[in-house]
Write a structure and sequence with these properties.
By secondary structure, the protein is mainly alpha-helical. It has one domain: Glycerol uptake facilitator protein (Up-down Bundle), CATH 1.20.1080. The protein has helices at about 5-30, 35-60, 65-75, 80-105, 125-145, 155-170, 180-190, 195-215. Helix 4 (about 80-105) packs across helix 7 (about 180-190) and helix 5 (about 125-145) runs antiparallel to helix 6 (about 155-170). The longest helix is centred in the first third of the chain and has 28 residues, at about 5-30.
Length: about 220
């Protein structure tokens, strides 16, 4: 049975991820605009806080803190669809609350860590890139944490995978890999460029990862 503490953990964990990740980008860009450094800041902020989130809430909720992860785990047969939907509510709420707090703290910021494509990256490219990077991330989560192949190292392996994806995709799509990370800042800022492509790509990548690992790389 789904417990309240798991939902609260998903809300807080997603809030932490978006507040620290999007917040670091927002505050750094506003004070020291530098494209190259911003990608490194984003990779470090998201991955380092994710280490803490997994260590803190992993044993309570699995520390999905990402609707695409929950979808992948569900497709892999390791989560009940109803539980996934309730997780989504907590995760999206956490992302929106974090973005709202960023806006409150820094009301004059031009952006609040929105994930948006760079010049020359159209919607189809966004979809492909986000799908691939999310596939990498969710694959790691399933094998390292859900199937337990990485043991205690899952708290490092998963954040490292996220950091690597951001270093690759940060300059192209800002590397969301997380619908809650995309939707929260987009709603609060009122800027939703290519959001449909982000959502389809991210959820699609998570679902494909869950299907592939449940069929071909299933836990022995």
């Amino acid at each position: 049975m789904l417990k309240l503490n798991a939902l609260v953990a998903e809300f807080i964990g997603t809030f932490m991820l978006v507040f620290v990740g999007a917040g670091a980008v927002t505050f750094f860009v506003a004070n020291q605009p530098n494209g190259d450094a911003n990608i490194i800041i984003a990779a470090l902020a998201h991955s380092l806080i994710l280490v803490g989130i997994i260590a803190t809430f992993g044993h309570i909720s699995g520390a999905h803190v990402n609707p695409a992860v929950s979808l992948g785990v569900t497709v892999a047969g390791k989560m009940n669809p109803l539980a996934m939907l309730v997780y989504w509510v907590a995760q999206f709420a956490g992302g929106i609350a974090a973005a709202a707090l960023i806006r409150y703290i820094y009301p004059n910021a031009a952006v609040i860590g929105q994930t948006m494509p760079a010049a020359g990256i159209d919607g189809v490219k966004v979809l492909i890139l986000e799908a691939l990077m999310t596939f990498f991330l969710v694959s790691t989560v399933i094998q390292a944490a859900v199937y337990g192949k990485a043991g205690n190292l899952a708290a490092l392996v998963i954040p490292f995978t996220l950091a690597g994806a951001i270093l690759l995709g940060g300059a192209l799509t800002r590397a969301s890999l997380n619908p809650a990370r995309t939707l929260g800042p987009a709603l609060i800022s009122g800027q939703t460029p290519e959001i449909v492509f982000y959502m389809v790509g991210i959820f699609g990548g998570g679902a494909v990862a869950g299907l592939l690992h449940s069929v071909l790389f299933r836990q022995a």
